[in-house]
Every structure is written in structure tokens, then in C-alpha cells.
What does this fold into?
Amino acid sequence: MLQMIQSKKLIHFFLILFAGILMANRGGSPGGRTGSTTDKGTCSSNGGCHAGGPSTVTVQDYILTNVPISGYVPGQTYTVSLNPSKDGISVWGFEMMAEDANGNAVGEFISNSDANAMNNGERATHKFSSTSGTGKKLWDVLWKAPTAGTGPITFYAASLAANGNGNTNGDNVLTDTATVIEGAPSSVWSVDWEKVRIYPNPATNSIHLDGLIRTDFTISIYNQMGKEVYSSEYTNTIDVSRFAKGIYYLKLTNRDSYTTKRFVKQ
It folds into this structure.
């Protein structure tokens, strides 16, 4: 009888401990769980607090930003919104970071009513008061763009969609990425830049540059994930036949200024 009582007390202790662990993370991610190239995992993998159950990682297009299509302005603050959705979910959480093409954390997340900044602004996570929702959730996160010359940036986010049953059964992690390019400072957009064009666009085998009256430029091409796939001194014809299909960003740079142009490889 005494042994049975002790066993029940032990079970009760571990249930309280486990529940405490789950509740603790309702106040924010422990960090390192965005699914980025740096983290390589989320809270449902690599020893995460929701690993071991039937948690699944799915990709969902829920990262939205107010960064214009022409690119971010270095030093300016933007809103990065996360809007995940899943039926039957009542508890939500997230962690997010931004990386450059080399996998470095860039920019600065700023704490607000929806999110807390982590690691000196390198990451953002949910607050305790913003984790409840039914079927969908919206967080608006503030992010300050990095210094000039950083190049394309990819946001990585992992959102925990939990059913609140006290364990990991039925929980999911929804991951997403979004890439933005670096825009040219307003003083850079001269008549020369306005006349620059890439053709054909979309392209199949090669692209051509037209409209430049000077050739002291270097050329870099980045894919949609922000990875540099081509670089050279100036040339007005570039072979893209071996590029995978998708969206690319061509950056022209000289010691005075730079511009970025978008093209599609089909």
C-alpha cells in the first residue's frame, strides 16, 4: 500500500514537472529552433522540447513583410508578420531569425507587444500573453535592416501549433522562409540606373544587360534563398542555362553605388 502511494506521488511529480516544462516555453522559445541553416532544427527535432511525439514539420507560406519589392533600405525598420493557421489549435508560439547568404544572423529584431527580442536582437520569439488563438494566429514583429552591402536576407520562422492537451501528441511545427533583397539608397537611383534592363526576362539560356554607359561594375547573382550563384567582372551577356528554374537577383556594384535587378529563369 505504501509503495503504491509512493508510486502515485512519483507519477504526480513527473506530470507536474513535464507540464512545467511545457508551460515555461509559453513565455518564449528557448532559442536555436527556427529551422534556419544555423539552427538546423526546430522544437520538434534535434532534442527539442516537442520531440518524441507525432509532431511533424510542415511548410506553410505565412511570413509576410512590408519590405518593398525594390528591397530593404539599410537601417530602416520594417514589420515582419507571421500568420500561421491550423484547425483545432489553441496554443501558439514561434521563433524567428534572419540570415545573410553566408548563414550569419543579420539585422535587429525589436521587442514590442507581440514579440520579445533574443540574443541582442538576433532572434525574436512570442510573449506569454500572445500565445492563445483558435485555428490561426498573427504576430507583427519589428525588424531593423542591417548595414549597406549585406545583400539578400532570408527570414526563417518555426511556429509551434499545439492543441493544449498537456503533451506533444497532435502538436505540429509549421516552418516557413521568406527572402528580401537589399535596395539601393535613394541617392543611387540616377538616370543610368533607371535605364538598366535585363532581357530576355524570363530567360532560358542567357541574359543580356542594356542601358549602362559605363562598365566599371562587378556582377553578382543571388537565388531566391539569398545564396550567391554567380559573380564576375562586368559583361553584358551571362550564360544562365545551367541555373535552376526560379527567381534570381542580379546586383551591379562599383565603388560609388549599386543596384539590384530581378529576373526569372524558366
User: Anything to note?
Assistant: The longest helix spans residues 2-24. The chain has two domains: 33-180, 186-265.
